[in-house]
Amino acid sequence: MTPSRFLLALALAAACLPSTAAAQERSTQPRYSFGVIPQRSPTLTAQYWNPILQYVSDKSGVALELSVARSAPEHSDGIRHGRLAFLYSNHNFVPENTVSGYRVILRPRGAAIRGEIVVLAASPLKRVPELQGREIAFPSNVALVAYQVPMDALEKLGIQVKPVFAGNQEGAMGQLKSGRVEAAAVNSQLMRDFSERESIRYRVLWRSDEYLNIPISVHPSVPRRDVDAVRGALQDMVADPQGARVLEASAALVKQTPPYGFISATDKDYESHRRFYARSGASPR
Amino acid sequence: MIWGRLSLVQRLTAACAVAIMLTGTALLYGIVSHDLRAGQAELERRVGHELDAILPSMTDPVVLGDYARTEQIVRAWAAQPEIAQARFTDVFGVVVEANVPAYASIAPRWFVRLAALEPVERKRPIAVGGRKYGTVSLVMDPGPTFDQIWRRLSGSIAVLAAGTFALFLIILAIARSSLKPIGELAATARRFGSGDYTVRIASAGGPPEISASVEAFNGLADNIASLVRSLGESRAQLVVEKDHLSWQATHDALTGLVNRPEFERRLKLMVQQANIDRTRHALLYLDLDQFKLVNDTCGHMAGDELLRQAAVILRKRVREADTLARLGGDEFGVLLPGCTLDKAVSVAEELRAALHGARFAWNDKPFVIAASIGVVAVGDGDTHDRALAAADTACYAAKQSGRNRVKAYTPDDAELAKHHSEMHWVTRIRHALDAGRFRLDCQRIEPISRNAGSIEHYEILVRLLDEKDQTVAPMAFIPAAERFGLMPEIDRMVVRTAFEAVARAVRSSPGSAFPHLAINLSGTSLGDEGMVTFLREQFDIHGVPPSTICFEITETTAIGNLTAATRLMLAVKELGCRFSLDDFGSGLSSFAYLKNLPVDMLKIDGAFVKDLVRDPIDSAMVRAINDIGHVMGLRTIAEWVENQETLVALRAIGVDYAQGFGVEKPRPLSQMLEEKLPATADIVPIRSARR
């Protein structure tokens, strides 16, 4: 079997979750894909999420398997086609993706996030208008707080910038750090974690309103029992010393600050996101 | 064995080469072993390093499930040097791998087989966040490592070979230059050994050891050369001395002629030769007639000179192949090989004539040299003894025939046969001694002067009785007895028999005195060292008073053995005996020796006495001898007194005693004793002491 044919088979297996013949062959228990928005490198993403998913699988008895896309559009495409059983993403709020019917079940504890346009502390750029005509790094064109929201604001201010898509959040931050671009649009929480981890100093030129952090959603095809088991395990994780240690360890990888863990949420909590997309008409290009 | 045929240079070179090769091989082995271990370790390290490098790059695609990217990375990694295979196997067993063609090593296959480096394969799992995604494996090809080690080994071998070759050349050069003097040494030693003792090695050169060897050789050569010179000189000296000794052993010192032993040896060879090839040879026996005269009148020096001159004369007339020898005294012998009897006679005649023609003078006193020569043919069937005896006989016959003549010996010659028969006297005398066939006669010696006193004495005369009891005259057997050495035995028999007879007679005639006896002693007995002891024993045994015994010795025998005679005479005189010098005057040299001989009486040669009355010279001679004898305090006796006239004349001259037919004829001793000592009527049987 060639790699390309294998990839196709893997994709089909993921699409047919949890009742695909391939999945049944591998395990008596259904294995659900857990798609994560590509904010960081695939490896760092896997390092962060695999321990959590392993804990949840063990606690809930529902097997979860991390699924990382090569790019945000690919991730978004997977959501649109309902290939992922569970999601840690906000791409499901994009109007084109809503057809797949994902519903929010949990969201991270802690403060809300904002979209920010940042420059390095030493940058001569002091104000947003100075961004006129300049290259700005974005994770992708489907990133809510790091593209949709700031681009919307810039357009309203009449400032034309040249977007440079770096694939994910830390990709855009990396381009800023290296000097490839003079400014980057980022998730405020991720930027703080990144600056901590990479020891860089930055200034915020523009900051959006607060948005809830990225939620965990589930595809409607996943049985309620499994959904409840997964939700319960994730929700109780921070209270369980073992779960808390897993969360702390993962947070430490990315210099994430407390509080950790997840709390129950619903689609209603994210109405603002839906509205933004609907109002701005933003959609992945 | 090859090693045995190698020169020193080749041995050194071969040994060094082997040592270097062994050392080099060991060194290379160590290096290669180390390199192989290091290469293996490096492969291990490299594979770990490569895995460390590949894992981060593969994690993202693996996590993403990006197998296209994974395959790209696997292929890219497999393109790295020394990586033979790169492979990723996911948890489902799906394999993504890339193989590269086998590395084409430049190292030879045998080296690859010997080195036995194995490909190194290492696997490492890809796990992220506790989840295992699969396994990455890399296989390292040892080929490049082989090549690296082989290149290093090749270089080392090349360096070693070059070093070995260079060392080889250096050793060769050093050894050759160092051993060159040894070659010269060997060549010089060979020349030296072949006899060139002057050869030396000029300059040593080479290392100190070689120089020392060369110097040692030169020193040794000097010593040997010196030794050889000394040996040569010593050998030459020895040869000279040996020749001299050999010459002395075979030659007569006086004349330089071959001596008797050598003459007899050559005669034996000649006889053997004649017996083998039947050739005819000849032998001359030569006796100088007047030698005794010269010796007596002029002394030994004159006699010696005569012998020398005779030798010179004879030598000139014999061939080179002939042997001329002095056989003793005045006797010479000549061997004439390949010479007939006639020719030998003519040679002998020539020699006789040459001697006779020569003149010998001593102190202006001339002498005529004459020789009697016996000639004998030596041929098949002879022995050297017989040949010598025949020649002696012939010579004797020549002398008896009147001297100065040549006499050839032929077996049928009547005269020679007669003389030759003398030799048979030896047997007869011996037989007579054993059988007691001798008889003692005696002849009275009468005192005729007032000084002589009244004591008469008798000269004992020996007679031999033949098979028919006929008396054989002394002159018939005495010469033979003298010639063949039987006289001492006869003398002792006479003494013993006479003493026995007179002692018995005296015992048979109590009160009578021992008669005075004169007993002849031959010249041979004078030289008999046991004679004194014998006489002493006889005196003791028979009780005869020594003062009654006077021993007579002839002038000739006394002078011929002067030293021995004087010694014996003095010893016997100590016993109390007296001595009388017999036949005095016949040698004409008597006066010179008379003073030295301890004699008591002089017996004037009968030749002067016999014609005393008619011949004034004889008369004067008798008178002179008598006078001198008296002057010397000696008593004189005249023998051969055949008549009263002579007796009267002797009385007139003053001679003390007279003996001869004119006084009394000889008669048996027994008869005289019976007459003088009447009680003894028995005839005394004569028995040899041997019996």
What does this structure look like?
- The complex is a heterodimer of chains A (285) and B (691).
- With 285 residues, chain A is an alpha/beta fold.
- In chain A, 42% of the residues lie in helices and 20% in strands.
- In chain A, helix 3 (42-60) packs across helix 8, helix 3 runs antiparallel to helix 9 and helix 5 (144-157) packs across helix 10.
- The radius of gyration of chain A is 19 Å and the shape is globular.
- Chain B has 691 residues and is α/β, with parallel strands linked by helices.
- Chain B has 24 helices and 21 strands.
- In chain B, strands 12-13-15-16-17-18-19-20 form an eight-stranded mixed β-barrel, surrounded by five helices.
- Chain B is rod-shaped, with a radius of gyration of 62 Å.
- Chain A binds chain B through residues 1, 3-4, 6-7, 10, 26, 41-43, 45-51, 53-54, 66-70, 250, and chain B through 56, 59-61, 63-68, 70-71, 92, 94, 96, 128-131.
Please describe the structure with a list of short key phrases separated by commas or semicolons.
heterodimer; A: 285 residues; alpha/beta; six-stranded mixed beta sheet; 42% helix; globular; B: 691 residues; eight-stranded mixed barrel; 24 helices; rod-shaped; disordered C terminus
